[in-house]
Amino acid sequence: MGVSLARSRKTIAVYATVIFYLVLVLFPLYWMFRSSISDNAEMYGVAIQFIPSHLTFAQFDQAIQKWHFGLYLRNTIIVAVLTTLLTTIISSLGAYSLVRLRYPARGALARSILFVYLIPGGFLFIPLFIIMDAIGLLDTLLSLVLTYQTFAIPFCTWMLIGYFKGISPEMEDAALIDGCTRLESLRKVLLPLAAPGLVAAGIFTFTLSWNEFLYALIFIQSDDARTLPVGLAGLIRGDIYLWGPMMAGSVMAAVPVMFLYMLAQRFVVQGLAAGAVKG
User: Fold this and answer.
1) CB–CB of 181/245 below 8 Å?
2) What per-residue confidence (pLDDT) applies to 270?
3) Terminal Cα distance for the chain, rounded
4) Residue 137 DSSP class
5) Residues whose CB falls within 8 Å of the CB of residue 139, separated by 6 or more in sequence, listed in order
6) What is the DSSP letter of 122?
């Protein structure tokens, strides 16, 4: 009887803790969605209304039509997709080279990749700004795509190194014996087996590119090339916060990433766990 009572109390404590943290995490998201479909009278009213009495999409209309969030969303998608594709290709080739090929200083190069990732981005934006200005890419989306490689490639390469090490080289050797080249064995054998790791690396890169603010703020001056994080920051005018368009823009920024993680959650967990323990 005493054991059963102690077990029940433990179960209640666990569930209470989980519910508490769920509320703590989900309530700001709920309030963001709630504010995006409320009119200004309810948003700026004195009384707090947890459920809006009148649903409206006026905030989204204002965010898209007046504050150009549709354009910012398009720019962010272009930057994130191109960065993810380029990073995945380069990281795959780099990780394959460090795992399968033998050449001098290979171990030191692998360790230096992680060291580069640990360098704070604030240390790099000045030299990168000078480089982009010298080659005439400032105020373009391409400058962001190239710049984001500096923090995406090192981490993704390091993660894929751990994943590739867990794949038996005998299967590649069999492909080489059958007449495949190194690149063909990589494409036909290693990459399909490393799909969870590639998905995890791609989602990591996509998320970082989607949310990045510092480089997008410094490198982009024109409104036509602005991204969502910078556009959201632009809705703060001194001590005035345009909460309606800001919450609508936040929903537009959050929903694509949320759905991406929901669809690929299994691959993300599997890829990150494999990269962590197999290296």
Assistant:
1) no
2) 61
3) 48
4) -
5) 219, 220, 221, 222, 225
6) G
Pick the CATH number of 59-277 from 1.10.3720.10, 3.40.605.10, 1.10.10.10, 3.90.960.10: 1.10.3720.10
Angstrom distance (rounded) from CA 103 to CA 39: 64
Q: What is the CA radius of gyration of the chain?
A: 24
Global pTM value: 0.87
SS3 assignment, position 48: coil
DSSP state at residue 189 = I
Give tens-digit pLDDT for 48-70: 778 888 888 999 999 999 999 99
Give 2-12 pLDDT, tens digit per residue.
567 677 888 88
| Residues 6 or more apart whose Cβ sits within 8 Å of residue 88 | 156, 198, 201, 202, 205
Of 115, 114, 118, 142, nearest to 128 by C-alpha is 142
Nearest to residue 231, comparing CAs of 28, 78, 79, 71?
A: 71
pLDDT of 100-113, one tens digit each?
888 888 888 888 88
d(CA 93, CA 166): 16
Measured distance CA(250)–CA(252) in Å, rounded: 5
Q: Residue 4: what are its φ and ψ, rounded to 5°?
A: -65, -40
User: Please, what's the b/e burial string for 255-268 (b: 16 or more CB within 10 A of its CB; e: otherwise)?
Assistant: ebeeebeeebeebb
